[in-house]
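From the thread on structure requests for the teaching lab: each student submitted one protein with a one-line request. Submission from student K.M.:

"Model GST C-terminal domain-containing protein from Citrus sinensis, C-alpha cells only."
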Amino acid sequence: ILGKQRYICGNRLTEADIRLFVTLIRFDEVYAVHFKCNKKLLREYPNLFNYTKDIYQIPSMSSTVNMQHIKRHYYGSHPSINPYGIIPLGPDIDYSSPHDREKFSA
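Reply posted by the TA:
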C-alpha cells in the first residue's frame, strides 16, 4: 500500500496513519531489542521507514515523541524481560532526515 500512495488511505493523513505511527516510531528503538522483534528493522523497509519519517516531520508531530521517556517506560516496566532495567543508548535514529514520500502527493 505504502509503495503506491503516501498514506494508508490515500494521499490524506488519517487517524489510521497516526495509530500506525505510534507503533512504528517505537519499533527499532524498543520492540526490536526489548521484545526480540528483530528479524528485520523498520529501517530495512524503505516504504515504512520513509512513511514514519514523513509523519514525524509534520509540524508539531515530533514534539509528541519523547524517545527517552518511551525507552524508560518499556525497558523499566517489564522486569521479567529486563530484570536490571538496562536502557540501551541506541540506535538513536534521525527521523528528521529526508524521505521520499512527496512523490505521492497530488
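TA comment: The chain has three helices and no strands. The helical segments are 15-34, 46-56, 67-76.
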